[in-house]
Amino acid sequence: MSGHNKWANIKHRKGAQDKKRSTLFTKIIRELTIAAKEGGGDVDSNPRLRAAVDKAREGNMPKDTIEKAIKRGTGELEGVEYVEVMYEGYGPAGVAMLVYTTTDNKNRTAQEVRHVFSKYGGNLAESGAVSWSFEKKGRFFIELSEISDMDQFMLESIDFGADDVDDSSDPVTLFTLPENLMRLADTLTEKGLHPKDIEFTYEPKNTVAVTGKDAEKVILLVSKLEELDDVQNVYANFDISEEELEAIMAEIE
Q: 80-115: per-residue pLDDT in tens?
């Protein structure tokens, strides 16, 4: 598992994806709106929207809030016009980063992202500088307690469309091609399992081993970027041990 996915796994386990419910709702509402804008308001034919709706429900977002966000995306309701912007950059120790944002003001967002990179030891890069080293995937988690036979689970998951199953941590992490994400999640749900944090992600093709002070600086930079309202996700190719990640998280929380 890449360092960034260890980071996501730990945050899922600790329930620390977003400490403030309002922050979580803001990010999900934007994703609902953009997903509906790009692929329509039907969750059955729009996997990205389906994933966003599932995440909204996991976060106990009210049904009318979900519906209004979708209708703003499809143009049935007026609202703020959001666009997607992906920033590329480098963190401490040469770690490559993709910063996925949704914004109604690209100048503001660019300034905020640039400021955080500069303040915490990184720098923005030109478009295409690091994106080539990442691959879009689908990802979700299954709690280890739900799996009675790991070998059978892994074999079945791969048969159902998983590219990889990482059982080195709890929860178990599953990866698949983006177009297979919802089908795989649905199949496992039918088997009585409960996929969590179903989403599209960017997996690094290669990783950079980082330890000590550099590891602390990398995680601090990622954390500060994730705190920005316009930032939906940060993807990075660091490889930091789970024990060290746990310790760093305890320090910055």
A: 889 999 999 999 999 999 999 999 999 999 999 999
What's the gap between Cα 173 and its chain centre? 13
Q: Among 154, 145, 137, 151, which residue's Cα sits nearest to residue 193? A: 145
Kindly report the pTM of this predicted structure: 0.87
Task: Give the span between the Cα atoms of 120 and 189, in whole angstroms.
Answer: 41
* Residues whose CB is less than 8 angstroms from the CB of residue 105 and which lie 6 or more positions away in sequence, other chains included: none
Instruction: Provide DSSP, 98-117.
Output: EEEEEES-HHHHHHHHHHHH
Q: Roughly how many angstroms between the first and final C-alpha of the chain, as a whole number? A: 23
| CA 125 – CA 46 distance, rounded (Å) | 32
CATH number for the domain whose boundaries are 84-131+206-252: 3.30.70.980
The Cβ of residue 189 has, within 10 Å, a number of other Cβ atoms equal to 12
